[in-house]
Amino acid sequence: MFGLNRKQPARISLLDGPLCPNDMLEQAVALPIDAPDDICVAPDGSLLVSSGKRVLRLRDWQSDSLTVISEFNHEVTALACRADGVIAVGLNGGGIRLITQEGDAAPGWEGQENGVQEATACTFASDGTLLVADAGGIDDQASRLHDLYSETGNGQLIRMTETGDRSVIASGLRLPYGVIETAAKEVLVCESWSARISQLSSDAPPKAVLQDAPGYPARIHALSGGGYILSLFARRDPLIEFVLSEPAFMNRMKAEIDPAHWIAPRFAARADYRVPIQMGAARLFGDIKPWAPSFSYGLVVILDKNFLPLASAQSRANGTRHGITAALEWRGELIAISKGSNELLKVTAMDQLI
Amino acid sequence: MSSGEDSKFLSSLHKVPKQRSVFSYRRITSDLLNRNWIEGAIPFITFFLLTTVILMTTDGYFAPSNLTTLAQYSSDAAIVTIAMLLVVAIGGIDLSVGSSFALSAFVALYLFHIAGLPVYLVFPLTLACGALVGLVNGFLTGVLGCGALLATLGTMITVRGIFVIASQEYLVEISSSARFDETWEYIGYESFMGVPVSFLVLAVVAVAIFLMFKYTRFGWHILAVGGNRKAARHAGIPLKRVILLSYVLGGTLVGLAAFLFAARQNSAGSDTGVGLEFFVLTGLILGLGGFTPGRGSVFSTLLGFATIFILGNVLINAGFRGDFINGVMGLILITVLAIDMKYRKERHRILARAYLDPKPMKMDPVLEMGKMAPEFGSAKLGGATLLGVGEVDGPEDVILDRAGNLYCGTRDGRIMKLFAPDHTRVETYVKTGGRPLGLAFDAEERLVVCVAGMGLYRIAGPGQIERLTSQTKRSWTSIEDDRQIRMADDLDIAPDGRIYFTDATKRYEMETWGLDLLEGRGNGRLLCYNPADGTTKTICDNMVFPNGVCVTHDGKHLLVASTWTCAILIFDLARMQDGPRYFLRGLPGYPDNINRASDGGYWIALAGMRSPVIDLAMEDPGFRMRMAKRVPPTNWLFGNLNIGGVLKSDRNGTIVDAYWDKPDGPLYMITSMREHHGSLFLGGVTNNKIGRIDLDEADKSWNGPDSYWPRET
User: Do both B344 and B394 map to the same domain?
Assistant: First the structure.
């Protein structure tokens, strides 16, 4: 009666203001990469890109300048590089490996049993220690989705040192997917399934510095001159939020249906024919409308130092450059990984964007 | 197949469980709210309650003698209520009715007793007095555009002033007049066949105004102006004149009421007509169930007035003071207005919430498709030739005549003709005005078409379209009037000329048919039109989105696609009353049209693909219900209409082949296909092109019209 007992719907920020839809990701120059996931910048100015089980180096924006640094037995799921050239590589179910720029095991770190289950992102802190976001037993897309549709978070944030010390900074995170140390030496972690960025501190509970994000935040990188570049791997969707509020349906879906056919956020625009659509996504004259609802989306947001959006680059429902899992600034350009289209994107010059 | 074999085959198929008529509280609520008479029910209910209470508490209140008295004394105020209805209907209000009533009554008395005029002159002059006040009101509000409330408040005070000044001079003289006139007395006191004359006048006025609102241009204009002034002006209605005239007519009726009053009372006092406007307004608002311009419900209004009049009368009889009664009236007025406001605000919301009425639906498991499943398919539609690209908007069905000309319906209501042999010349064949869907040729090679929103039509040649039927018999169990054929979808013609066609859903339209999936109920029906006698019959009701229709090759059976259940049903044309059996069930997608194939099998168009998630949602009506409430419609879960295909079934309902396009290919939602001389033509309701593929193994001489209507050789 009078709407007092109505359940509050999930809050999702609108794509408005600096987040107004655009097709910059669709216009970007692309370099096809097989199964990319993360990127980082090496001290010599080259770009390191993960590709399946390999780590590649890109010296200039030409595909023939791609060289293999190293190849592992597992998929590479996270990359970070220290000022002295040590590269941290997160591996799917294989913990963290540290290698030199030449691809050899880095001295000091070799053979560490670091207990990380599934590194989704890592970064070196200013004191040289390694911060690792561990999704916690989530080792494929399917179980990540299981995690979306469960109450509890299994993720944690771990700090590792060269001497083998390992400390858990935060736990119970819902798919931590990005980590960064700010100029003020605060640690920020992106919690994808909670659609927020939290600031961690040793003596206080995590504080959300950005919440109700319009998408699921993935990796975060610093912007030169203050601020951040945040990639969001899919857009949040009212139907998914609704399913989250329907435990009975959710549990049956989890129990009876292959995760590949769930109502769930996705990296790629094109899905199996057994994936349902939303009513507004039906094609007319063969086209999907750019404003149609979709389970996948391409979104990179430039945030100022107070986490307010300054600009964004997007690929809409009718595009293919979806599933942006990492974006950073390289030689003055905005570079992004599209897991949906398996491409490395050179979006635009940063000074054009802001 | 011999007939013995044939009946054996049919009886080996499972019967479709009988779909009982829908019973759901939600459905009843929404259907009731949808009916127009529901608002008129309010005064009926109050009147009924009041009379019940009076019957239980008062002896002899409804005795004939008392009723006659009531009728005599209430008629003049009842006529004023109708006068008020006229101005309220046009979006105004008239507060001056009380004063005008008093002045007119005075004029009547003056002319009769002092001036000594004959009654046949007194009568029109009294009416003229009322009309004059109405003219002033109409001029102020209609021509000058003053607010009706303040303008008529002004005339109310002015006219009252004139009445008081005039009456002070002559009232004593009038009451002491001894003039006697038979006509005057007859009008005032007599009855005609037991009914007081004044009440007869009321009856005539009520019927006249009722007929005026119902059948005359002027009445319609009044309602249009009251309903939406701006729209009425855009429609070319002369606003000023209509408003002016309705005030004048209202004023005339007030004069009439005053004449009756004068004849009955033979006197007037300073309190004549005081508070009358409030009294009739209360009755009006109770009768209309609120203050609603644009409604001309004369009888509801009179019922509301009767309720108020009897209530007041009963309270006076019970010894309550007049002030108390006024207080009660005011309370009624406020209560009705408050309830009405709340109801008006909530009605659409309640209706929208209650309209979608999902039902649990257990889907059959998907047939094992093996290597025919889309993920293995070599995209047999991938190399299709595209016809009429950009020139046909939404060819739901496609059909070819003997000469190979291709026809299809479009979203803007046209039927297009794509000329043989290459189909590059595209012309409008006929304009239907609705949404043409299914197509078929009859024995004379005339095109028969299902037009959604209109019915079944036949086209004899370019531009020559005639309606065959748009209605069927109303079903007994439905509150909603379901005579109208709402979404005529597909048809086929039996050898005897009978046209079998589907009304896919009785509850949704072309723009909202998707909601029918979320409902998952048997909302559709199979109909039969018999050209021999022009009748339309409902063959099978409560079917779940019956869509494509196809008469089998032997002309003895009828295949009907039930889209949301992903099944094809089969009827025996000779025994339709037996109901359908399953010809095919567990399809991987949503079947649309079905058509004959040259090898004796059938083509089945799949408009979209089902998915495990939507199958699960179909089992859970609560989930769909809450989704419809909380999630914006654009985000509602839906079957995957972005991928479709064509299945080939043999004559016994076994899938033998499947045709898919590439996942983002141009032929995605396939709603129809026709085989013609070794080619297959494909249409899609949301597409803007027709596909054509060549069938390597098909009989190159086969075409549809010859299959249905073999030419005598």
Answer: no
B382–A contact, CB cutoff 8 A:
no
* DSSP code, position A94: T
Q: What is the pLDDT of residues B87-113, one digit of tens each?
A: 999 999 999 999 999 999 999 999 999
Could you give the C-alpha distances from B90 to B93, B148, B635, in angstroms and in order? Answer: 9, 11, 42
Among candidate residues B248, B269, B290, the one where a domain is terminated: B269
* Total tally of structural domains belonging to chain B: 3
- Does A2 lie at the interface with B, CB-CB under 8 angstroms? no
Q: Of B599, B595, B591, which is closest to residue B681 (Cα–Cα)?
A: B595
Nearest to A157, CA basis, from A171, A146, A147: A171
Query: Among B67-71, B333-337, B375-379, which is the least confidently predicted range?
Result: B375-379
Q: Is residue A232 within 8 Å of A193, Cβ to Cβ?
A: no
B293 found inside a domain = yes
B246 has pLDDT over 90: yes
**Is B632 part of the contact surface with chain A (CB cutoff 8 Å)?**
yes
pLDDT level of residue B560 (50, 70, 90 thresholds):
very high
Domain A17-270+291-353 belongs to what topology? Neuraminidase (2.120.10)
Q: Greatest CA span in chain A, whole angstroms?
A: 68
- Mean pLDDT: which of A40-49, A150-159, B366-375, B656-665 is highest? A40-49
Q: Is B189 exposed, middle or buried (0-12, 13-18, 19+ CB in 10 A)?
A: middle
B489 neighbors B437 (Cβ within 8 angstroms): yes
- Residue A251 at interface with chain B, using a CB cutoff of 8 Å: no
> Do residues B32 and B19 share a domain?
no
Q: Which pLDDT value is given to residue A2? A: 44
Mark yes or no for CB contact B620/A249 under 8 Å.
yes
Domain that holds residue B299: 25-57+275-356
Instruction: Find chain B residues with C-beta within 8 A of A282's C-beta.
Output: 638, 641-642, 669, 686
Q: Say if residue B7 is in the same domain as residue B107.
A: no
Residue B134 lies in a domain: yes
Residue of B nearest to A292 (CA): B634
In angstroms, the CA B639 to CA B610 distance is: 5
pLDDT tens for B21-60 read 567 777 777 777 777 667 667 778 888 888 898 888 877 7
Instruction: Please report whether residue B581 resides in a domain.
Output: yes
Does the pLDDT of residue B192 top 90, yes or no?
no
Whether B609 and A273 lie within 8 Å, measured CB to CB: yes
Collect all residues with Cβ–Cβ distance below 8 Å to A134 and sequence separation of at least 6: A116, A117, A118, A119, A120, A155, A156, A157, A158, A176
Whether residue B639 is contained in a domain is answered as yes
Of the pLDDT bands very low, low, confident and very high (cuts 50, 70, 90), residue B12 is: confident
Please state, as a whole number, how many other Cβ atoms lie within 10 Å of the Cβ of residue B23. Answer: 8
Residue B641 has its nearest CB partner, among A253, A275, A277, at A277
Residues B700, B619: one domain?
A: yes
Asked if B633 reaches chain A (Cβ–Cβ under 8 Å), the answer is: yes
Residue whose token pair is 């030419």: B711
Q: Rounded to a whole number, what is the distance in Å from the CA of A3 to chain B's nearest CA? A: 12
Measured in whole angstroms, the distance separating CA B241 from the mean position of its chain's CA atoms is 31
CATH number of the domain residue B495 falls in:
2.120.10.30
- The per-residue DSSP string of B186-231 comes to HHHH-EETTEEHHHHHHHHHHHHHHHHHHH-HHHHHHHHHHH-HHH
Tell me the backbone φ, ψ of residue B218, rounded to 5 degrees.
-60, -45
Q: What is the pLDDT of residues A251-269, one digit of tens each?
A: 999 999 988 899 999 999 8
Tell me if B688 and A286 make a contact (CB, 8 A cut-off).
Answer: yes
Residue where a domain stops, chosen among B269, B289, B319: B269
Is there a single domain that holds both residue B641 and residue B541? Answer: yes
Could you tell me the two tokens for B406?
Answer: 């291709």
